[in-house]
């Protein structure tokens, strides 16, 4: 369970993180001193502001906030129903910390943005979804006690799972249903919480709205690019010497952020989180921190997550751990997730072990792309394909069965520790008579060579195949097969 919020840094002018150096956490008095007063806005006024700011969702998808707001307004009028405002502060991805920073240090910015939206929509309720890891909830509750909100404001606890942060899963959870995405895609702007038109957006998005309401669209656009004005919150971890949540101006060179966080020489950098894409060290030297700038070098901004890999860890092994995690985080309600993602994880593992070509990974990814009830299969496939495209030299070394010579250190921010007891199969050739039973028990790892004798990679047995490997050891009639500790 996460308990410690990482340090905060800034490159350029602080906006969301203004006052952090002086106050640490901004209570209401400090918040008003740093950011100044804010008043309610009518619907047309808030729409003009959101459009002028070119505000897009900060949760990963980057959907224009003004379009969401307009859709809810039209739905309320069409159905003659009240609206609900939902703040998604659940941040289910383990590698992300930016929303936790806002919850713990600038909760009033989030509440300001939600209050602006609730007033403009004449909403009945504001619901804020937070993770059950305990980070940020107390700070948010304290902030609510310090002020009066325009409507009833409640906090809903969400399981700290990757899939629970998806918008439809959050709405389901608020409605008392399982915290998983709905089986069919539907618009929360038409029917969300309690069947009412619902404005759903990420915590940082509401905080940016509050900043823009004070500055106005023109001053807000004094920072950033023409296409993406303002600032961006990033979570930088992995091989960084100084992991941090960083606020930077949109369009700033990525190299400035990496230098600030003391990122050493890398093999590649994951941009956008577990549903993001890898970029090469060469691409990182020219990339700009914006959706457009990162797309130009094959990356993505996504949820604002940056995970550089040092040169002393196995990149494909690290990627395989993430794919296995994502397969386990499936909602398990549609075929591409329930069966396709485990197949993809198996294909990546076996490619790392050197017993299957990369084409099998590509085929497994193709089986799930565009076919799920939510975006989880697409994001997982994108991550896996990006890994085998960027780490081609490592893939070549693994294809020989000898691996790259580097161990998996578990630096991707996954919950729990890496395998503490890696094991590999060994064979006593003086005992083996080529019965072939072991290959029938665990065919994904053990194959029979041209002479009918077992062949398997010298790398550790993947954890998900450990049970099968143990069974193979037990069925060997000559006691030739063993599981030994991997060095």
UniProtKB/TrEMBL annotation:
GO molecular function term, any single one: metal ion binding
Keywords attached to this entry: 4Fe-4S, Flavoprotein, FMN, Iron, Iron-sulfur, Metal-binding, Ubiquinone
Residues covered by the NADH-ubiquinone oxidoreductase 51kDa subunit iron-sulphur binding domain: 316-360
Cofactor(s) recorded in Swiss-Prot or TrEMBL: [4Fe-4S] cluster; FMN
Pfam families named among the record's database cross-references: Complex1_51K (PF01512), Fer4_15 (PF13459), NADH_4Fe-4S (PF10589)
Gene3D superfamilies for the chain: 3.10.20.600, 3.30.70.20, NADH-ubiquinone oxidoreductase 51kDa subunit, NADH-ubiquinone oxidoreductase 51kDa subunit, iron-sulphur binding domain
Any GO BP: cellular respiration
Family (UniProt): Belongs to the complex I 51 kDa subunit family.
The protein's name: NADH:ubiquinone oxidoreductase subunit F (NADH-binding)/ferredoxin
Native organism: Micromonospora parathelypteridis
Taxonomic classification: Bacteria, Bacillati, Actinomycetota, Actinomycetes, Micromonosporales
């Amino acid at each position: 369970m996460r308990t410690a919020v990482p340090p905060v840094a800034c490159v350029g002018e602080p906006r969301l993180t203004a006052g952090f150096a002086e106050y640490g956490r901004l209570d209401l008095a400090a918040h008003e001193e740093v950011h100044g007063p804010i008043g309610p806005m009518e619907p047309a006024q808030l729409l003009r502001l959101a459009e002028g700011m070119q505000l897009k969702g900060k949760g990963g998808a980057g959907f224009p906030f003004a379009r969401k707001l307009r859709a809810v307004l039209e739905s309320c009028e069409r159905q003659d129903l009240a609206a609900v405002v939902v703040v998604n502060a659940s941040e289910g991805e383990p590698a992300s910390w930016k929303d936790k920073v806002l919850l713990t240090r600038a909760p009033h910015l989030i509440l300001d943005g939600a209050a602006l939206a609730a007033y403009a929509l004449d909403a009945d309720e504001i619901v804020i979804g937070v993770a059950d890891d305990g980070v940020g909830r107390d700070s948010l509750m304290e902030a609510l006690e310090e002020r009066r909100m325009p409507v009833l404001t409640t906090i809903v606890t969400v399981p700290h799972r990757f899939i629970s942060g998806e918008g439809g899963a959050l709405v389901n959870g608020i409605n008392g249903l399982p915290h998983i995405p709905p089986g069919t895609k539907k618009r929360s702007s038409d029917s969300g919480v309690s069947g009412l038109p619902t404005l759903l957006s990420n915590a940082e998005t509401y905080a940016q709205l509050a900043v823009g309401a004070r500055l106005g669209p023109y001053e807000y656009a004094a920072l950033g690019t023409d296409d993406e004005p303002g600032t961006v919150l990033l979570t930088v971890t992995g091989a960084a010497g100084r992991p941090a949540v960083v606020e930077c101006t949109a369009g700033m060179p990525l190299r400035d952020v990496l230098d600030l966080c003391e990122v050493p020489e890398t093999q590649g950098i994951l941009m956008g989180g577990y549903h993001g894409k890898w970029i090469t060290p060469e691409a990182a030297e020219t990339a700009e921190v914006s959706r457009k700038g990162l797309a130009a070098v094959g990356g993505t901004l996504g949820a604002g997550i940056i995970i550089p890999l040092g040169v002393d860890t196995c990149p494909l092994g690290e990627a395989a751990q993430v794919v296995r995690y994502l397969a386990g985080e499936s909602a398990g309600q549609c075929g591409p997730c329930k069966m396709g993602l485990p197949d993809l994880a198996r294909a990546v593992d076996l490619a790392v072990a050197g017993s299957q070509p990369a084409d099998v990974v590509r085929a497994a990814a193709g089986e799930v792309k565009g076919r799920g009830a939510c975006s989880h299969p697409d994001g997982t496939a994108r991550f896996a394909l990006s890994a085998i495209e960027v780490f081609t030299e490592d893939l070549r070394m693994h294809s020989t069965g000898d691996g790259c010579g580097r161990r998996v250190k578990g630096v991707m921010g996954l919950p729990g520790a890496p395998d503490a007891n890696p094991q590999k199969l060994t064979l006593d050739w003086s005992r083996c008579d080529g019965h072939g039973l072991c290959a029938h028990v665990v065919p994904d790892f053990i194959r029979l060579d041209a002479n009918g004798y077992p062949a398997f990679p010298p790398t550790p047995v993947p954890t998900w195949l450990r049970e099968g490997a143990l069974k193979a050891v037990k069925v060997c009639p000559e006691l030739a097969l063993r599981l030994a500790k991997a060095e």
